Amino acid sequence: MVRLIDYQASEPISMVNNNNPIAIPHTPSLTVLATIHITIPRKNAKKNHVELIATIGVRGVSGTSQILFKIFRDGKQIFTAQEGVESDPTSEVNYIATFQAIDTNLAKGSHFYELTAENITNGTEAAVVGPISFSGLAVAHDDSKSDL
Predict the structure, then answer these.
(1) What is the number of domains present in the chain?
(2) Is 11 part of any domain?
(3) Which residue from 21, 63, 92, 131 could staple onto 127, CB 3.0 to 4.6 Å apart?
(4) Which domain holds residue 13?
(5) Which pLDDT belongs to residue 146?
(6) DSSP line for 25-42
(7) Which of 53, 55, 66 shows the shortest CA–CA distance to 24?
(8) Distance from C-alpha of 138 to C-alpha of 45, rounded to nearest angstrom
């Protein structure tokens, strides 16, 4: 059986706004887009997983950028995803990157998740234009029942 133990969500930007872009820095610098805290009770330690879902609206400013998105748990990188973003005004320039990560067997206590972005392509520019959403759903596994 699977049981919900925590859910947290952050939506720092709720819609596209090309008038207020947030520049995505080049590696090794990065920008933190959103954060959440998930709490695992003692009784659910090591028998759980956290499903993390992120959606980020980005825009190509110059060249073709490769944006590296990372998720950190308690300061340790646990996930990466990459999205190519073009700036050609005769083509698409706004993109939505959505991805999911699953973090398993967390210890008891509060865990801090950060969603970040960085541009790994020199000589190009890209920006976050929204929306940004980041959520975490923590579930516990009960081995005594096998509904799933």
Answers:
(1) 1
(2) yes
(3) 21
(4) 2-141
(5) 45
(6) PBTT--EEEEEEEEEE-G
(7) 66
(8) 11
The single-letter DSSP state of residue 18 is: T
Placement of tokens 């980020």 in the chain: 56
pTM: 0.93
State what percent of residues in the chain have pLDDT above 70: 96
3-state secondary structure of 117: strand
Read off the CATH number of the domain in which 124 is found.
2.60.120.660
pLDDT tens for residues 75-125? 999 999 999 999 998 888 999 999 999 999 999 999 999 999 999 999 999
Q: 11 near 69, Cβ under 8 Å?
A: no
| Site of tokens 């993390």 | 52
CB atoms within 10 A of CB 124: 20
What does 55-107 look like in DSSP terms, one character per residue? EEEEEEEES-EEEEEEEEETTEEEEEEEEEE---TTS--EEEEEEEEEEESPP
pLDDT score of 31 more than 50: yes
Per DSSP, the three-state class of 21 is coil
